[in-house]
Design goal:
Layout (H helix, E strand, L loop, with lengths): L3 E4 L2 E4 L4 E7 L1 H4 L3 E7 L6 E7 L4 E3 L7 E6 L4 E6 L8 E7 L6 E2 L2 E2 L8 E2 L3 E6 L1
Parallel strand pairs: 2-13
Antiparallel strand pairs: 1-3, 3-8, 4-5, 4-9, 5-6, 7-8, 9-12, 9-13, 10-11
């Protein structure tokens, strides 16, 4: 059964770190683009970081230099290492995949969540000041 299961969320003080994991079934993991998205209360969901099957990455400006997306092709798992966390990073974080190969634009995966059509249930990240 195709699925995405996130884990690793929690509460941390500003400046701390967390690593999110997303375990994927083989079919989902083999999709060209996968990534992390987040939604804060009262805000729209936004792209955080995406990665292509070729290893190319794309980050939102707000997390560049602080977050790192990576993949483990043996474990079929997607990761998001989050360092130097800020209170504004507080959100529900979702793992998602593009099942139809439409997110790959101009030689990289797009951060536009409209292209991503398979979603996990999310994991909460709370950063206190």
């Amino acid at each position: 059964q195709a699925q995405l299961v996130e884990s690793g969320g929690g509460s941390v003080q500003a400046g701390g770190s967390l690593r999110l994991s997303c375990a994927a079934s083989g079919y989902i993991y083999s999709r060209r683009c996968m990534g992390w998205f987040r939604q804060a209360p009262g805000s729209e969901r936004e792209g955080v970081a995406v990665i292509g099957s070729d290893g190319s990455t794309n980050y939102a400006d707000s997390v560049k230099g602080r977050f790192t997306i990576s993949k483990d092709n043996v474990k079929n798992t997607l990761y998001l290492q989050m360092n130097s966390l800020k209170p504004e990073d507080t959100a529900m974080y979702y793992c998602a995949a593009d099942l139809f190969g439409r997110a790959y634009v101009s030689r990289m995966c797009s951060l536009d969540l409209a292209w991503y059509n398979y979603w996990g249930q999310g994991t909460q990240v709370t950063v206190s000041s």
